[in-house]
Every structure is written in structure tokens, then in C-alpha cells.
Amino acid sequence: MTGRIAVLTGAGISTDSGIPDYRGPSGVWTRDPELARLFTRKHFVNDAAARRRFWRTLDLHADARPNAAHRALAELERSAAVRILTQNVDGLHQKAGSTPRKVLELHGSMATTSCLRCHTGFPTADVLARGEDDPSCPSCGGVLQPSIVLFGQYLDSDVLSLAGNIARVSEVFVAIGSSLTVDPAARLCAIAAECGAKLIIVNRDPTPYDDLADEVVRDPIGEAVPALCARLAAA
């Protein structure tokens, strides 16, 4: 039976579920570079106009459903010790059936929102349902931010430490649908490889870690991941 498998997933794994990626040819920020500015902590906190546009453009993709790649990773748990380290905030791994405690959300979750002043949490859907341009905390009036890591924010140190430990002890490390250009998540590939893991990269476009990989797969993710999972399950 295959040993410990760590899987790093990026936006590319969710495109088949109707959620666009960010940096691809048709990515959100490729089509509208200015939109990326809304995802910086500095502008979100200090610029009410940026917050208003952020909330206007925010899409929870509540109707998005897991695709074949998400489901294949969930199924792989039946035959291997799998931990998922995801850069995504869409919750589709859990919806596909991956054990929630085995999914580490490196960049947080869009499902919840919290107050930057009093730290009270709310379902993001409830905040959006208020229909306000720049919703504030009903408890203290503070700025509300979805529970995601914006550019200029540090990843949670405990989450990052756990992700590093998972990478270090993995026997196989698979990176799926990530450009591998955003640190520190991308560096998990190097950590795993340096500790002896077999590194497999599944991505449409070249990444900075391709030369370090034992295997690079360019096939469509919806086809490549189920095939890879079947191979790992049989190993």
C-alpha cells in the first residue's frame, strides 16, 4: 500500500467546477489586473472604495460542486494516508468527501467572515445577504473581512508549521493546479523533495519547481488526477 501522500492543490483543480483560476490565460487577475489590488491587506483595511468593490465582486460560488479530481482525492483516502494542503478557499475538498481534519486550508476559507476589531465571526453568506456596499461588524462597527489570507498578510504560523511537517514526512508529494509562484505554500514542494519525497506536479503550465520534480503531468487535471490516484492506490 502507498505510504504517506501529501497533496498541495491550487486554483487549477477547481476550474472544472466553474471557479476560474487567477493567473492563467483567462484568469481573474489576468483579465483584470486591477482586481488583484483589492486582495491586498493594505488596500482592504485603509480604502473604503476598494472594500466596496471587493464586496461587489465577491462570489462565494455557492453552487459549485466538486469535480472528478476532488472526488478522486477523497477516494484515495480509502487506500492511503492522504493529507491535503490547499491554497483554495472554496471548501470543495470537504464537499467531495475528504475528511475535514485532513484538509489544511493554507489561505483560509471564504465560508466565514470575521471582524478585524473584535474578531467576532459570521457566515459570509449572511454578511452578503445584508446587501451592504461595505458591511461592518454589527457588534462593534469594525471592518469585516472574509476569513482568507490577503496579500500582505502572513499565513497562520500554526497552519504553516503543520503544513511543513506534513511535507517533511510525506513519501509522495503531489502539487495539482498551482502555479507554484506564491510562497510560502510553493516552497512546500522543495521541503518535501529535500526530505526524500517523490515530487509529482500536475499543472497545465510550467512551474518553477518542474526541474525538481520526479514527474510532471500536463494532461487536463480532470483526467490526470483520477488516473494518478488510481495508480497511487494500486502501488
TrEMBL record:
The protein's Enzyme Commission number: 2.3.1.286
Sequence ranges assigned to domain Deacetylase sirtuin-type in this UniProt record: 1-235
Query: CDD domains in the record, alphabetically?
Result: SIR2-fam
Q: Which residues are the active-site ones?
A: 107 (proton acceptor)
Cross-referenced InterPro entries, in alphabetical order?
DHS-like_NAD/FAD-binding_dom, NAD-dep_sirtuin_deacylases, Sirtuin, Sirtuin_cat_small_dom_sf, Ssirtuin_cat_dom
Q: Which UniProt keywords apply?
A: Metal-binding, NAD, Transferase, Zinc
Report any Pfam family annotated for this entry: SIR2
Record bears the keyword Metal-binding: yes
Query: Record-annotated residues binding Zn(2+)?
Result: 115, 118, 137, 140
Per its record, how is this protein called by name? Answer: protein acetyllysine N-acetyltransferase
User: Lineage of this protein's species?
Assistant: Bacteria, Bacillati, Actinomycetota, Actinomycetes, Streptosporangiales
